[in-house]
User: Which sequence fits this backbone?
């Protein structure tokens, strides 16, 4: 990944904090990344690592009464943090759009699929009802719904899960957004349907040249879909690189853990999966230093109190936010996390 | 839809028949002698027997029930003459045809219930939506406390206070009374206004709280967030998505509340000395006036059952996932 001034989407030093009754939750803690048009960025991490929160912040969908957002979110040079609601409303669904995880709850049960797809199109282009409906049919057809002209008047509950997710993609793409955020778009689907949906996203990206952020906790999904990968932990980016770099030569102990806990088709069936010990930290009161150190097996290797006291920085471009020496980061993965039977 | 209506109408008829039969049986469990009412002071057993024969009370209860129910549809012959359909018999207490009394009283009760329902739905749901829109602010807290107070009030208490303040004290209004809407809508409205407000107070409290919590729940739903992500304004999302979702449960509760609405109407009629069906129901029991009691029960019952069918049909219109069958 190159660091250039004029990236299409540029997030710098992003902090998202929620006021809760128990205290302030630091959901995103100094995150930065960039994304160019036509590229796909994968963001992976456990539940609660701040993936979704980051992307809701890009769209400005957090409730401002309980949320504090600091930092820069530049979309095509336009600052989104602190932008007035009227400006964001014109961008949402238009220049940037989002696909949500659970298409059953994310679509309103009270309106037809066609109406829900047509709605943002009418709002953003000023099209007539008839034109918008025509556009909805066209979009449903494009995402592979058979008999789109008939199904456009169906309600979401009359669609299957995979069709609903396609309809949601149609809804997100109806105004040809330049930035598409897909928040675990395939988690609720069968594996075969998952692959179809991911292929569809890729295909549509090739037609429109939009930038895509794919949020997932499934490394299998990212491998074939994304160009660059950002690994998040406790609201921070801990590793970044191209998907090939990160998957074949992971450098952060947390990424090692993620890969080690994933079954591989070519591995021995007897081989045990290695879970990451411990649980993700509380974001109300994150551990000092490296947030991963309470679960990390390499703290002793670094020596001293560095992991406990000093926050490792993520270097620009390819790299990991870890105190381990660079040479060690490159070589430690297979031996350390994947114990091979003798 | 047609199948639904057919099925529900059939069910409604069964319910109405059951309730009428139970009412009829219960009446004969009362320790009463209806003939005494018509007989006067110096009553002989012979006179009572004659009256019982004239009223048909000498026959077995099932036969009486049969005569009463068939009379509604085909009319009935009494010793005093023919009673055309719909014949609900003659009142034991004032010897007038019951149907005439019902026709006379029904509009009052209908005005009270429909008007009261309109007021509490409009005001209650409106307050709930305002409170939800301003959740956590003083506006929300103000309405929430108000609804707690409203919930603790009773019709007869508020009614008397309203009369004392608005009518006797400030002379802003006249005593509530029923004027037919067909003759003078303005007078009808002013005459019913206090009963409507008083009847609706408890309901307003309930409905505003329910609407508020439903709206807040809906505003947290995923599909509302999706609508925001599409670029819709807060206002559009609030009314088009959140309110639409909150509507279905409100309609359901309204259907359940129809019975207590009728009960509230009875208390309201008493509080304001209005002559409606509720008052008639109570007096017919205390005067052991079987034909009137039966007629009030049948009319009230039919009204509630029909309203319930309408509510269920409305529910299917509101929520496309509900299939009527």
Assistant:
């Amino acid at each position: 990944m190159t660091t250039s001034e004029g990236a299409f989407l540029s997030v710098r030093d992003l902090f998202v904090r929620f006021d809760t009754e128990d205290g302030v939750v630091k959901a995103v803690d100094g995150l930065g990344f960039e994304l160019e048009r036509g590229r796909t960025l994968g963001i992976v991490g456990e539940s609660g690592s701040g993936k979704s929160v980051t992307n809701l912040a890009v769209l400005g969908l957090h409730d401002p009464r309980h949320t504090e957002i600091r930092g820069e979110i530049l979309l095509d040079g336009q600052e989104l943090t602190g932008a007035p609601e009227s400006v964001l409303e014109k961008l949402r669904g238009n220049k940037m759009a989002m696909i949500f995880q659970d298409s059953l709850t994310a679509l309103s049960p009270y309106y037809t699929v066609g109406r829900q797809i047509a709605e943002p199109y009418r709002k953003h282009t000023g099209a007539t009802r008839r034109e918008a409906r025509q556009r909805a049919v066209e979009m449903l057809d494009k995402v592979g719904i058979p008999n789109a002209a008939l199904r456009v008047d169906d309600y979401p509950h009359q669609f299957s899960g995979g069709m609903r997710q396609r309809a949601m993609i149609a809804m997100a793409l109806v105004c040809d957004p330049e930035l598409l955020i897909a928040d675990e778009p395939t988690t609720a689907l069968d594996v075969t349907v998952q692959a179809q949906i991911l292929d569809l996203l890729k295909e549509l990206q090739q037609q429109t040249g939009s930038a895509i952020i794919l949020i997932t906790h499934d490394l299998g999904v990212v491998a074939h879909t994304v160009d660059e990968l950002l690994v998040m932990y406790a609201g921070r980016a801990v590793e970044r690189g191209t998907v090939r770099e990160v998957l074949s030569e992971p450098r952060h102990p947390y990424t090692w853990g993620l890969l080690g806990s994933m079954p591989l088709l070519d591995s021995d069936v007897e081989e045990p999966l290695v879970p990451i010990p411990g649980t993700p930290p509380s974001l109300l009161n994150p551990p000092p230093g490296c947030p991963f150190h309470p679960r990390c097996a390499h703290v002793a290797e670094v020596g001293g109190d560095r992991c406990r006291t000093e926050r490792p920085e993520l270097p620009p471009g390819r790299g990991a936010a870890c105190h381990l020496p660079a040479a060690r980061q490159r070589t430690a993965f297979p031996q350390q996390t994947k114990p091979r039977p003798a | 839809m047609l199948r639904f209506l057919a099925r529900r109408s059939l069910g409604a008829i069964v319910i109405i028949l059951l309730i009428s039969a139970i009412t009829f049986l219960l009446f004969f469990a009362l320790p009463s002698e209806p003939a005494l009412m018509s007989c006067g002071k110096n009553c002989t057993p012979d006179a009572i027997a004659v009256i019982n024969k004239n009223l048909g009370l000498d026959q077995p209860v099932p036969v009486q029930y049969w005569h009463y129910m068939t009379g509604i549809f085909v009319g009935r012959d009494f010793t005093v003459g023919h009673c055309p359909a719909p014949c609900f018999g003659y009142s034991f207490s004032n010897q007038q045809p019951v149907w005439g009394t019902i026709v006379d009283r029904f509009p009052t009760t209908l005005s009270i219930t429909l008007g009261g329902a309109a007021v509490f739905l409009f005001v209650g749901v409106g307050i709930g939506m305002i409170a939800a829109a301003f959740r956590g602010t003083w506006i929300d807290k103000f309405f929430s406390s108000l609804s707690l107070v409203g919930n603790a009030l009773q019709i007869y208490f508020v009614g008397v206070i309203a009369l004392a303040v608005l009518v006797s004290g400030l002379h802003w209004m006249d005593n509530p009374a029923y004027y037919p809407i067909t003759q003078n809508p303005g007078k009808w409205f002013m005459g019913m206004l206090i009963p409507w407000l008083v009847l609706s107070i408890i309901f307003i409290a309930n409905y505003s709280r329910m609407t508020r919590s439903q709206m807040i729940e809906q505003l947290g739903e995923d599909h509302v967030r999706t609508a925001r992500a599409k670029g819709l304004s807060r206002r559009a999302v609030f009314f088009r998505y959140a309110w639409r979702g909150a509507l279905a449960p409100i309609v359901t509760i309204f259907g359940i509340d129809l019975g207590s609405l009728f009960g509230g109407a009875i208390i309201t009629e008493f509080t304001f000395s209005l002559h409606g069906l509720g008052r008639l129901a109570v007096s017919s029991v205390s005067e052991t006036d079987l034909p009137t009691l039966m007629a009030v029960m049948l009319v009230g019952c039919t009204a509630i059952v029909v309203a319930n069918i309408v509510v269920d049909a409305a529910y299917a219109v509101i929520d496309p996932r509900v299939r009527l069958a």
